[in-house]
Design brief:
Elements lengths: L9 H9 L10 E2 L5 H8 L5 H10 E4 L2 E5 L5 E4 L5 H7 L6 H4 L1 E2 L7 E2 L5 E9 L1 H8 L4 H19 L6 E8 L4 E10 L1 E7 L2 H4 L3 H4 L11 E7 L2 E2 L18 E6 L10 H30 L3 H28 L2 H19 L2 H7 L2 H24 L6 H16 L12 H11 L7 H19 L4 H7 L4 H11 L5 H17 L3 H43 L12 E6 L3 E3 L2 E3 L2 E3 H7 L10 H5 L9 E6 L11 E3 L5 E8 L17 E5 H10 L4 H7 L3
Helix pairs in contact: 6-7, 7-21, 10-11, 10-14, 10-17, 14-21, 15-16, 15-20, 15-21, 17-18, 17-19
């Protein structure tokens, strides 16, 4: 995703801008730093304080996704794939919401999504000076600990004695800025509407990250407080008019993570080591679930949601790896870094102040090579995706961290985080033993393969057992699927954890010292030195580019802008619109193009000329799913649910000629709600009636 056709790096786009070339529709901008003047100059649209205040007050983040408040009574719009796990958790043998969708006619029928929360930004406070002062003069693990302790203290102070709020210190520009984001938090989020799986994910993996698309990837959830629908006077206005080609659009959401400002040493490590190894393992795990899917219809249903997520991740990381293996892209990234370093060298005072942070990062990542595999298997990917092991790790660490002074705790275990953990431990989420066995068996098997059978860490994980046999025993013997058991262990602290005979708790206890040790090594030799160096690289960028920079995405509120547009590919023009008629034309009756009967029963009522999905050049990435798509008046005309295949390089840069976001149009949503699903009350609420 970058400034010229095959120029994928964000830095290059900034160089182009500095040279006076027209501003590209690039950037995931914090609300408080949105480039209103650039938008006014290009599109003639005034994005004033009122416009941005509405975005701040009506945009939400939910687990892994984004959402927008669309009524005064807490109704929120997001994607189907963002609530799919909720629908699964709420399903019963008598009511399979994957098959028939989740439809409500009254608010009394709305059901709470286990473990789901929503956060809406209330205020932003710059705390850069305070955080930097806490880290001054420290290096390595001491720097990491100091920054963690200070940010935890700031978060605690900012939300002191305030229930229903969460405060988070977020780093921008690789530590160039720190800001406290204060959120209104809702822990009672209820499902209002979700279509059938075959509608919400029509086209399946073959259509994923492609266009044209024909998806009703939409759902509605509601915020509750005190057992009643939340009052949300700040909300978006609904506009079911069809979007028009060239129309300006704005997408407020919470894009997850981009890495557009990495140094060459970091990019080289990604493509030669971490991304390559992780993608290979992800491919093998996908193969295991595909094999499980073929065993029986019940197995296919069981694995469906998991496989969708894996196939999505596989395609995402394949696209990222492909970009990093492109010599032209890497060459341009190298040129950008060389240009920035040359600018620093041309400024003797700046050069003396920052030294050579690029060389420091290179040394840190050279050391990372020896630590990466044990760090990955014991710490960052411990459990391999197993929900049950995740519970065990959290319980063991919560017990240990609670006994420490706040300033000495691991990140994520401050008092507020422990309180949130208590809520998640008590949530009645479904655990599928067969899936857990696959995750744990794969993790243990790959640990032995990559670390080797003779490695002490492998022996710690396996003892004398085979990976698959150990996985079966762990799942068969654990009771962590029971929320009451988890709650008792969390409340009982270290005494209860150490006394537990649960095999997963015992494994987490056994592994934790080694995991903490390798974590500390990484902090001392990689994380700490890199953090210190990158903050000086950020200073260099600010000196070179001023306020034309936008920070990498951090799953915090951002606003992107662009227009409704298609693109050209291999000499072919890709139009930006699809219609409901195209959905019927694409339906073959065979998966993944088999529409539910609800659509065929309504076929004579549906206006097939209605715009259904559309593409635009808004700069998005994973995490932005569910973001409302706004027109120039700030009205909701759709929702982002995907990008095209070219958008997968968006982690490292933006290409305005090819990178496209994919949206479901409000026109298609309203037509489906009325003509297919008969949700008149929901449509009235959307239209403020």
């Amino acid at each position: 995703m970058s400034g010229l056709k095959s120029l994928l790096a964000a830095g290059a786009a900034l160089w182009v801008f500095a040279a006076g070339t027209a501003w590209a529709d690039e950037g995931m901008w914090p609300v408080e730093a949105f480039p209103s003047a650039a938008v006014k100059a290009k599109y003639g649209v005034t994005v004033d304080k009122a416009f941005l205040d509405r975005i701040r007050g009506a945009s939400a983040r939910i687990p892994g996704c984004s959402a927008g408040v669309v009524s005064k009574d807490g109704l929120m719009q997001t994607n189907y794939h963002c609530v799919e796990s909720c629908a699964g958790n709420l399903s019963t043998p008598e009511n399979d919401y994957f098959v028939k969708g989740f439809l409500t006619s009254a608010r009394s029928e709305e059901k709470q999504c286990p473990g789901m929360w929503a956060e809406i930004l209330q205020s932003v406070d710059d705390v850069t000076a305070r955080v930097n002062a806490a880290g001054a003069g420290k290096t390595g693990a001491a720097l990491v600990q100091a920054l963690s302790a200070e940010t935890a203290a700031i978060e605690k102070e900012a939300c002191a004695n305030q229930t229903g709020f969460r405060c988070q210190v977020i780093s921008f520009y690789d530590g160039g800025q720190y800001k406290t984001y204060k959120f209104r938090r809702y822990d009672d989020v209820r499902l209002v509407f979700a279509p059938e799986f075959k509608t919400g994910f029509f086209g399946g993996d073959p259509d994923n990250f492609n266009f044209p698309r024909f998806n009703l990837d939409i759902s509605y959830i509601r915020l509750y407080e005190g057992g009643k629908p939340a009052s949300t006077p700040v909300h978006y206005k609904w506009n079911p008019s069809a979007p028009k080609a060239g129309e300006p659009i704005f997408v407020p959401g919470n894009p997850g993570t981009t890495q557009r400002q990495l140094t060459m040493a970091q990019l080289n490590f990604l493509r030669s080591t971490s991304l390559l190894a992780e993608h290979t393992q992800r491919s093998e795990l996908r193969g295991k679930f595909l094999r499980l899917e073929q065993e029986s219809p019940d197995a296919a249903r069981l694995v469906s949601d998991t496989l969708i997520g894996l196939e999505n991740s596989f395609k995402v990381y394949f696209g990222r790896l492909k970009v990093l293996l492109d010599d032209a892209f890497v060459g341009k990234k190298a040129k950008e870094e060389a240009d920035l370093r040359a600018r620093v060298a041309a400024n003797p005072q700046l050069a003396q102040e920052i030294g050579d942070p690029w060389a420091e990062v290179e040394r840190a990542y050279a050391a990372y090579g020896d630590l990466y595999l044990p760090y990955y298997f014991l710490e960052t990917n411990a459990g391999g995706g197993s929900t049950l092991f995740g519970y065990a790790r959290s319980l063991v660490r919560a017990a240990a961290e609670r006994e420490k002074p706040a300033a000495e705790r691991l990140p994520g275990y401050d008092d507020a985080a422990l309180q949130r953990l208590a809520g998640s431990m008590g949530a009645a989420t479904k655990i599928e033993p067969e899936l857990e066995r696959v995750y744990l068996g794969h993790w243990l098997s790959k640990s032995r393969e990559y670390l080797t059978a003779d490695d002490p860490n492998t022996k710690l994980l396996l003892g004398r057992d085979a990976p698959e046999a150990k996985a079966r025993a762990l799942v068969a013997g654990t009771r962590l699927g029971d929320p009451a058991v988890r709650k008792a262990l969390l409340e009982g602290g270290m005494a209860a954890v150490q006394a537990s005979d649960d095999p997963l708790i015992q494994l987490a206890l056994a592994v934790d010292p080694a995991a903490r040790a390798v974590r500390r090594q990484v902090e001392q030799t990689v994380t700490g030195p890199t953090a210190a160096a990158l903050s000086r690289v950020a200073r260099a960028r600010f000196a070179a580019y001023g306020d034309t920079l936008y920070p990498d995405a951090t799953f915090s509120l951002r606003v992107t802008y662009g227009q409704v547009t298609g693109w050209s590919e291999r000499g072919k023009e890709i139009p930006p619109f699809t219609t409901l008629g195209g959905l019927y034309g694409r339906a073959t009756g065979q998966a993944p193009y088999d529409l539910p009967q609800s659509w065929f029963k309504a076929e004579n009522r549906v206006n097939k000329d209605t715009v259904f999905n559309f593409s635009g050049n808004a700069d998005i990435i994973g995490g932005a799913s569910g973001s409302p798509t706004l027109n120039a008046k700030g009205e909701v005309i759709g929702a982002v649910f995907d990008g095209n295949i070219w958008s997968l390089g968006g982690a490292y840069g933006y290409d305005p000629t090819m990178n496209r976001s994919v949206h479901v149009a409000a026109s298609g949503i309203q037509e489906a709600l009325l003509k297919v699903y008969g949700r008149e009350a929901l449509v009235k609420e959307l239209n403020g009636k």
